[in-house]
Amino acid sequence: MINRRELISYSLAGAGLSIAGVPMAALAQQTKGTINVMVQPEPSGLMLGIVQNGPTQLVSGYIYEGLLRYDDKLEPHGLLATAWSRSDDGLTYTFKLKSGVKWHDGKPFSADDVVFSVDKFLRKTHARLRASLEPLESVRAIDAQTVEFKLKYPFGPFISLFDTGSMPMIPKHIYDNTDYATNPANAKPIGTGPFKYKEWVRGSYIQLVANELYHTKGEPMVENLYFHIIPDAASRAAAFESGKVDVVPGGAVEFFDVARLAKLPGAAVTTKGWEFYSPHSWLVLNNRKAPFDNPKFRQAVMYAMDREAMVKVAWQGFAKTAAGPFNQHVKFASDDVTKYPRDLNKAKALLKEAGYKGETVRLLPLPYGESWQRLAEMIRQNLIQAGIKVETTGTDVAGWNQRTAEWDFDMAIIYVYQYPDPALGVARTYTSHTIAKGSPFNNIEGYVNPKVDALFDAGAKALTDADRAKAYAEVQKILTDEVPVAWLHEINFPTLYRTKIKNPISSGVGLNDSLSRASIG
After folding, report:
1. Pick from 312, 350, 384, 477: most CB atoms within 10 A?
2. Is 480 helix (H, G, I), strand (E, B) or coil?
3. pTM of the full structure
4. Which segments of 2-144 does DSSP mark as H helices, in order?
5. CB–CB of 514/79 below 8 Å?
6. pLDDT, tens digit (0-9, with 9 covering 90-100), for 127-145
7. For the residues of 485-520, what is the DSSP string, one character each?
């Protein structure tokens, strides 16, 4: 909890990379300050205020910055802000901005940019942040270096909203009174970050160069970041094996390749840097239709799955069986919930109680590579062993997005980022007001429980951590009894890197902001 007079000193982060298609001169420079990183898939854009998917955050987290950054304990540290305070009633937050910060075009960064970014630009373009800003009554510039946020009611996770991915600062002098979606700066983004945009060769690489105007002395510590685009999974593994790539983000190569690649001379692997995102996977069960409208059938699905075996086979040990709806990195996660070890006898008994008559149910895998396909096959086999008739219906990424967003599924595999606080990344999956077609990352299962709605609301608005914890403990018990979705795993995405890269992970968002503090040794 941040007290009224608690002041936090600043810190920050950056990133770097490289791969096929980069001029040989640049590859030859890597010992002189170039880091080559893999990005998969290719970003759809680099304007972080408009595009917030994973590949965009990986690259643009070095171009743009938020007011704060977060460590692996999810504690906030200053970035564009040097200090902040919260009023005793939890309704007013005041931020002091770092002086001397400049945009990449040399213009000064000020409180007016913060107000514009939050109250105008991001409210319009950033759907996830827009939902989290519902408690915000006003934001105003007190002076050029001071910003005040006033809330309508206490909102416990408010201080967790200021990371670069959630609340990137946007240059007012470039975007105000323009069409945000078509502004030419979207193609050549301008931020305050440790690296500047240099070049994007579509299908090959994105180059960022060190920002000579950067506001933190001694950063960044490398001259160039190259983000390499390699569509084929086997070729991505080969690129790291051959030495063309220095850093491979989690999920960019198949999990079954990680152990082999990590044993290469001068290679290492870490699972650090995902604490802020808290990836959580589950099997979405369409509660709107039989047999999934019966909680007993949903419980049977949980008991039927051998999730421990999936950890070993599909994830090669880089995952943990999920206890329930909260990733254990998320604040207020509780272990005092109903447990679902594999028990085929219980599963079969529950199916009988639910009146299941053997109708076929469709399983929609997540089309993110061979590891996910292995997971889907294990789920299918487990459910068949319990007596559930399962048919797999595959599709590509676009098809998966459309079918889940339009609720055209019986069961679908998914994973989401849950972020540091349940009000930011957990509630959206289970509260009834988030039921809406168009996105696969809300309550697409159609689960409705007014008590769950009330508890999530109470947990978000309570002023003390004790009151918040009480509400969230109760909601976790209800959810694990009713099983709106079948929880699978907390995924520990492994990052591969060359040991010559020193300090590659230095924050809770990992490669999305760490490489500006990394060096080559």
Report:
1. 350
2. helix
3. 0.87
4. 24-28, 54-60, 111-116, 122-125, 127-132
5. no
6. 889 989 999 999 999 999 9
7. EEEEEEE-PPEEEETTEES---STTGGGTBGGG-EE
